[in-house]
Specification:
- The chain is mostly helical.
- It folds into two domains: 3-65, Winged helix-like DNA-binding domain superfamily/Winged helix DNA-binding domain (Arc Repressor Mutant, subunit A); 70-205, GntR ligand-binding domain-like (Four Helix Bundle (Hemerythrin (Met), subunit A)), CATH 1.20.120.
- The chain has helices spanning 3-17, 28-35, 39-52, 70-94, 97-109, 115-133, 136-156, 160-178, 182-205; strands at 55-59, 62-65.
- Helix 4 crosses helix 6 (115-133), helix 4 packs antiparallel against helix 9 and helix 6 (115-133) packs parallel to helix 8.
C-alpha cells in the first residue's frame, strides 16, 4: 500500500470512529510524524479527505476535521434518498433475485444483539445493490454517501430497537427486489430512510445528562 493510501485509510478510520473529533487540527508535521509518512503523501491523503468533505481548511495553513450537524445530516439524507430509492428500483429490474432472496432470509434470522454482525450484513446488502445496479458512477456516489454515514451512525449511538427495526426494513427491501417489484422496493427503501433519519435526529437532540 502506498504511503498516501495508508495515511488516508488511517485518518479516515479515525475520523469515522470519532478518534479525531470535529475541529481537530491536522498539522502536517505532527500527523506526518504520527503516521510515519513524509509530508507529500500526507498532503495527498488530506486532499482526498477534503474531496470527501471530511476535512476543511480553517485557514490557508490549518486543516481541521470537518463538523457535521443536523442540517448536514438532513442534506446527506436528501441525496441518500434519491440515490438509494433509485438503486432499489434498478436492483429489482437487473439484479439476481436469488441473491436478494437469500439476503432477505439472513435478515429474518439475524441476531441484532450482535451489532457487528448486523452492520456486516447491511454492508453485504449494499454491495449486492451495487452489483445489481452495475453502474460505476452510481456506485461511486453511493460510496461517498456511505463514508459520511459511518460518522452519523456513531453520533446517533447504539440503539438496539432501531437495529432490529432496520433488519426488518432491509428484509422487506430485499424481498421486494427478489420479487422483481421496483416500486415496492423503492417505497420500502424510502420508509427505511425516513425511519433512520428520524431516529438519528432524535438521538442528536436528546439530553446527554
Amino acid at each position: 500500500m502506498r504511503a498516501s493510501e495508508r495515511a488516508y485509510a488511517t485518518l479516515l478510520d479515525e475520523i469515522q470512529t470519532g478518534a479525531l473529533p470535529p475541529g481537530t487540527v491536522l498539522g502536517e508535521v505532527e500527523q506526518s510524524t504520527r503516521l510515519g509518512v513524509s509530508r507529500t503523501p500526507l498532503r495527498e491523503a488530506l486532499r482526498r479527505l477534503a474531496s470527501d468533505g471530511l476535512v476543511a481548511q480553517a485557514s490557508a495553513r490549518v486543516t481541521v476535521v470537518a463538523g457535521i450537524d443536523a442540517d448536514d445530516i438532513r442534506s446527506l439524507f436528501d441525496l441518500r434518498r434519491a440515490l438509494e430509492t433509485e438503486a432499489a428500483r434498478l436492483a429489482a429490474r437487473r439484479g439476481d433475485h436469488e441473491v436478494f432472496r437469500a439476503l432477505a432470509s439472513e435478515f429474518a434470522d439475524l441476531d441484532t444483539a450482535d451489532a457487528d454482525a448486523s452492520y456486516a450484513l447491511i454492508a453485504r446488502f449494499d454491495s449486492a445493490i451495487d452489483d445489481a445496479v452495475a453502474n460505476t458512477y452510481f456506485s461511486a456516489a453511493l460510496r461517498s454517501v456511505r463514508t459520511h454515514l459511518v460518522r452519523v451512525r456513531r453520533m446517533a449511538r447504539y440503539n438496539p430497537l432501531r437495529l432490529s427495526a432496520s433488519a426488518r426494513e432491509h428484509r422487506l427491501i430485499a424481498e421486494a427486489i427478489s420479487g422483481g417489484d421496483p416500486e415496492l422496493a423503492a417505497h420500502a427503501t424510502h420508509v427505511h430512510l425516513h425511519n433512520a433519519l428520524t431516529t438519528i435526529l432524535e438521538a442528536l437532540t436528546e439530553d446527554p445528562s
